[in-house]
Amino acid sequence: MNKRIKWLLAMGCLVAGLSQGAMAVEVGGVKLEDSVRVANQELKLNGAGIRSWAIFKVYVAGLYLPEKKKTVQDILASNGPRRVRMVLLRDINSDEMGQAFMDGLNKNSDKTEKAKFVNQTIKMGEIFASIPALKAGDTITNDWIPGSGMHVLVNDKRVGDVLPDIAFYNAFLKIWLGDKPADSSLKQALIGN
Questions:
Q1: Which DSSP string corresponds to 55-68?
Q2: Containing domain of residue 49, as a range?
Q3: Would you say the C-alpha torsion 52, 70, 86, 106 has a positive or negative sign?
Q4: Which of 2, 58, 61, 149 measures 20 to 30 Å from 26, CA to CA?
Q5: Do the domain assignments include residue 84?
């Protein structure tokens, strides 16, 4: 009987260890939770990948949605909260981050679309300007909360004003998911391919 109890305890520890390991996904040495809570709703990790530029690995990004989606159209039409979480893999200054944001926005939104959210684009620029530099390991989280708007958090602390327009949040997502994404392999990873 003593051997059986030891065996059951060992199996219990093994199962507990396996279930704990399944709670996070590792990408580029960064662990991302496979689910998070935003606005009291559980979101699932739709996909995650590494943003590379030239030979540099810049950050790991994860996209969280209420339910997994496989197309850009479905992701942009998704109801409920959403989250994009980035974990930096190298130091970066706010000018570089702001320029990358504007480049991505300009490549993936037409003039009519951009004209609708000029004020929010300016506010996003102010957010970047308020962050002097980011270090490897720092996080940037962009949450869409229905009825409130886009919340930007740096190292889990809110920065700047809430940006209220879903069209702006979708334009923001198209930086990675649009026709001219910042990194095409990251786009495929975020949509779960």
A1: TEEEEEEEEEESS-
A2: 24-190
A3: positive
A4: 149
A5: yes
HSE at residue 126, side-chain half, CA atoms within 13 A, is: 11
Q: Is residue 103 part of a domain?
A: yes
pLDDT band at 53 (very low <50, low <70, confident <90, very high): confident
Residue-wise pLDDT tens digits, 38-48: 999 999 999 99
- 97-128 residue pLDDT tens: 889 999 999 999 999 999 999 999 999 999 98
The CATH number linked to 107 is: 3.50.70.10
Q: Measured between alpha carbons, how far is 188 from 144 in angstroms, rounded to an integer?
A: 21
Q: Are 144 and 81 in contact (CB under 8 A)?
A: yes
Whether 10 maps to a domain, the answer reads no
32 closest CA partner among 65, 69, 60:
60
Strands 41-53 and 35-38: antiparallel
Whether this prediction's pTM lies above 0.85 is answered by yes
User: Do 173 and 191 meet the contact criterion of CB atoms below 8 Å apart?
Assistant: no
